[in-house]
Amino acid sequence: MSFPSPSASNPSLTTSAYMVSSIDQSISDDEVASLPSESTSASDLDTLSDDYSDAEEEWRESIEQLELLLTMVLVPFVGKFLGRKCAYWSWTRFMEWKYPVEVVITNPATYKGAGVIEAMSPL
């Protein structure tokens, strides 16, 4: 049995029509009758609700772990970092206000040479 081609220019349509016809011929009524029927009994619904509750419990545990990670690791780390930045900034501002000193370097070569000599000297 051959089917007329829906469009000679489109081979995908021809292939799909052929595939459908071969599937129709290979399945018999006896095979279809022997397939298990779908049931919606109370036990199936209990299984679905159990699966749903297990998935929901796992989801809540995952959220709990993320909250612990956030509160035990990230918040203290960020707080420590920002606290130190704030302390350094405020201490610098206080010292500049309390002891206003202006440093003027008149000879950069001498300044660099003194730094090198100081770095090379033993403690």
UniProtKB/TrEMBL annotation:
It comes from the Eukaryota. PANTHER family: CHROMOSOME 1, WHOLE GENOME SHOTGUN SEQUENCE, MITOCHONDRIAL IMPORT PROTEIN 2. This is Uncharacterized protein. The lineage of its organism: Eukaryota, Fungi, Dikarya, Ascomycota, Pezizomycotina. InterPro entries: Mim2. Signal peptide: none annotated. It comes from Aspergillus nanangensis. One of its GO terms (biological process) is mitochondrial outer membrane translocase complex assembly. Pfam families: Mim2. One of its GO terms (cellular component) is mitochondrial outer membrane. Residues 29-51 are annotated as: Disordered.
